[in-house]
Write a structure and sequence with these properties.
single chain; globular; about 40% strand; about 150 residues; alpha+beta; Alpha-D-Glucose-1,6-Bisphosphate, Chain A, domain 4
Amino acid sequence: MENQDFTTTILVDQSPKEAFDAINNVRGWWSENIEGGTEKLNDVFTYRVKDLHQCTMKLTDVVPNKKVVWRVLDNYFNFTKDQSEWIGTKVSFEIAEKDGHTQIRFTHIGLVPAHECYKICENAWTGYIQNSLRDLITTGTGQPNPKE
């Protein structure tokens, strides 16, 4: 069976280091409502958006200019019955040089179409990665959720 984990990829002209630094600037592309560290191995941070979504992530793999992986320690959605869908999943950013560009392959390992939240999460992740993270890397300014 084909891998069904959600994935999306972007190509930018900036260096792998610039991409890596932008990915770790989670407040610059995902949300200004992040509490905790987002850059070093074993850092733990919490993401919050109103009463809709809250999750706690731990950085489990940090390879400068190549890879960042977050493990979801805890999660809450106000729009799903099953609150465990994200718990234990991993969010992976793989950075590689490709044809003179930098490729960022984002995969939410464990976020699969069978999940109740899949369509909403697929849409949200696509927007954050394809638009906000790309803009942060290429222009220095993303469109994170504003501070509440």
